[in-house]
Amino acid sequence: MKSLSSSTSISERVRSAGGLIGGVLAGAVAIAFLALATASCSDSGSTAPPGQPGGPALTSAPPSASVSNGSSQTITITGGQEPYVITQIPLAALARAVWVDSAHTPASLTVFGAASVATGSTSVIIRDSSPSAARTVTIPIIKN
Length: 144
Hints:
Blueprint: H1 10-41, E1 59-61, E2 65-67, E3 72-78, E4 85-88, E5 95-101, E6 107-113, E7 120-127, E8 136-143
Parallel strand pairs: 2-8
Antiparallel strand pairs: 1-3, 3-6, 4-7, 5-6, 7-8
């Protein structure tokens, strides 16, 4: 880069700085364009059907759980994008839900009946990790 002496006019300094800034800006624009072009051409590996970003719907099998004092039932979670998280726990007086494995498809969730005389219904809500539109599945739980 050319050294600017004290005798250099202000307009020459502005033109010199403008050329440097313009070159840097042009380089940044080119890098951004390449990044976007590369991202749009790459295969994200998503198995989402058209109109469903993030993969297939989140489901549970069986779709509900029925437990009694001290019993348990395992639920399989599939679809969406793992890992999965519990966003609403069941009422503690009726049941608790514990992940056996939430990072792989199919994921396993075990629902345990609370050791209480209470009976009734509650639910657990599971959410996936889809970056655009997280999916949820609500699993009803009956405590006998």
